[in-house]
Amino acid sequence: PAVKKAISEAALQYTKPEGKVFEYGTAGFRMKADLLNTVVFAVGLLAGLRSKKLSGQWIGVMVTASHNPAEDNGVKLVDPMGEMLEAEWETYATRLANAPLESIADVYDELVKEIDVKVTNQARVVFARDTRASGSRLVGVLSAAMTATEVEFIDFKYMTTPQLHYVVRCKNTLGTQYSYGEPSEQGYYDKLAQSFKKVMRGVKVQGSLTVDCANGVGGPKLRELIKVLDSGLDIKVINDDVINPDSLNFDCGADYVKTKQRAPPSSKAAPLDRCASLDGDADRLVYYFLDESNVFRLLDGDRIATLAASFIGDLARNAGIASKLKIGVVQTAYANGASTDYIEKVLKLPIICTNTGVKHLHHAALRFDVGVYFEANGHGTVTFSENAMKVINNTEPQSPAQKSALESLQALTDLINQAVGDALSDMLLVEAILSHKGWSPKEWLGTYTDLPSRLVRVEVNDRSIFKAYDAERKLESPAGLQTKIESLQSRYNKGRSFARASGTEDAVRVYAEAASRSEADDLATRVANAVR
Ligand code: NG1
Ligand code: ZN
């Protein structure tokens, strides 16, 4: 009763935006920052409940809107192993966020009973935020909710999203055989730097890397990482202005580069210079360069996945453990068909296609010993099963070559942020692989040729009628549309197209690819018209 009163009193300091329905979606809650107070309050309450339900394990709360414009913000919960919030709890989050403030304490009580939470359990939460101006207000709201419900919390101030995931996992594994590392920002840098040094043993980096940080939290954090890297890798940091709040994600960053298919206008890179872009909270990464003819060349998430899968496959073979490790790749329907082909025919690895959203990919990746997953937009990582860790750590090498391959694999399991896609960790992974292979981005691009593709956003009256199946590659409703799409795509050489309702925007997305640019554009236009 004391807690209920405290919740009510704290909640009533805020005003709930009228007529707005909130939903915990693929990226948590995300919207204009001034609408978020009551949502963040609800998330603070739920984080405490989640921790209590899990016997006091640490839960994370990240305040960020990733690649969205500066005036937006968002909030999401992180589960104990650094994973995204369990799906069932998303509905509880939605319920609490939509509760009228006068009765939010009652809804809290209902949830306690329904989920069967032992209220006397300890609750512990860590939280952090990106560099958005609204962040400090929002973490204030978060703290108020947790103070009202007597939750123990630690404010990690500014962090990238993956750094917070890392800290959560470290906190919950500290002192166990699964210890993930030191639960601090410095611990994160040290772990990356040490493992990078190990992976780089005996190889040399070529040239320099220019990293566009989207003017977000990744900028200052990358600078911190560079301080401890000591590896010969020359990183030039650009677009790292976190002082001017409007510059965030503006004309730069991974989302800009991927969707516009061009370098940030501020880029001064010369032909063949290796460039990379992070997004606003540094969980996405894409590479690119200008070729000899000054043509922009993108190396997106599909490319990072194929590069990583091929490298890990080679190491496993060289270490003599290939038969003991089931290596696989997870993609979504947005993966370029040429990458899928390359994985199947050249790398000869199994592929799982899942629904859009990294939590689906992550889940599927766990079905392999080594699961490489990336969305085309550059968000992804590699997971290693318990079996994989055992094989990698306990195999006795039979030759110096096997020893070196095993050591590289061991270092990779530390370099890779297995909890969640992490642009800084992925960047070091790519740099290490390119150095090992002695490749410039040109050779990397040369592994296969992307099919020209087109992504179109279509505004519709009601996107909820678009019901997809088969990992969102087909539509079961509206009736007849799927047949139409299939008949259209069959007219184009290597034509492939699908439409699905976006999970983050009020629109339907149409994707099309085909053998030539004009065919891909044409197919996309026709399918978009069929959707309208
Ligand atoms: P939606 O809006 O459901 O297409 C987008 C991205 C996803 C994922 C989520 C979460 C595309 C085509 N879709 O999802 O890959 O990143 O946002 O941020 O890029
Ligand atoms: Zn992001």
TrEMBL record:
Biological process terms in GO annotation: carbohydrate metabolic process; cell wall organization; UDP-N-acetylglucosamine biosynthetic process
Biological pathway: Nucleotide-sugar biosynthesis; UDP-N-acetyl-alpha-D-glucosamine biosynthesis; N-acetyl-alpha-D-glucosamine 1-phosphate from alpha-D-glucosamine 6-phosphate (route I): step 2/2
EC annotation from Swiss-Prot or TrEMBL: 5.4.2.3
Active-site residues, as the UniProt record annotates them: S66
Residue ranges occupied by any Phosphoacetylglucosamine mutase AMG1 domain in the UniProt entry: 185-286, 300-439
Top-level EC class as recorded in UniProt: isomerase
Residue numbers binding Mg(2+): S66, D279, D281, D283
Note accompanying the cofactor annotation: Binds 1 Mg(2+) ion per subunit.
Domain Alpha-D-phosphohexomutase C-terminal, first and last residues per copy: 455-529
Keyword field contains Magnesium: yes
List of residues binding substrate: E375, A376, N377, R500, A501, S502, G503, T504, R509
Top-rank lineage group of the source organism: Eukaryota
Keyword tags: Carbohydrate metabolism, Cell wall biogenesis/degradation, Isomerase, Magnesium, Metal-binding, Phosphoprotein
Signal peptide: none
Matching SUPFAM superfamilies: Phosphoglucomutase, C-terminal domain, Phosphoglucomutase, first 3 domains
Cofactor: Mg(2+)
Family: Belongs to the phosphohexose mutase family.
PANTHER family: PHOSPHOACETYLGLUCOSAMINE MUTASE (PTHR45955)
Function: Catalyzes the conversion of GlcNAc-6-P into GlcNAc-1-P during the synthesis of uridine diphosphate/UDP-GlcNAc, which is a biosynthetic precursor of chitin and also supplies the amino sugars for N-linked oligosaccharides of glycoproteins.
Protein's name in the database: Phosphoacetylglucosamine mutase
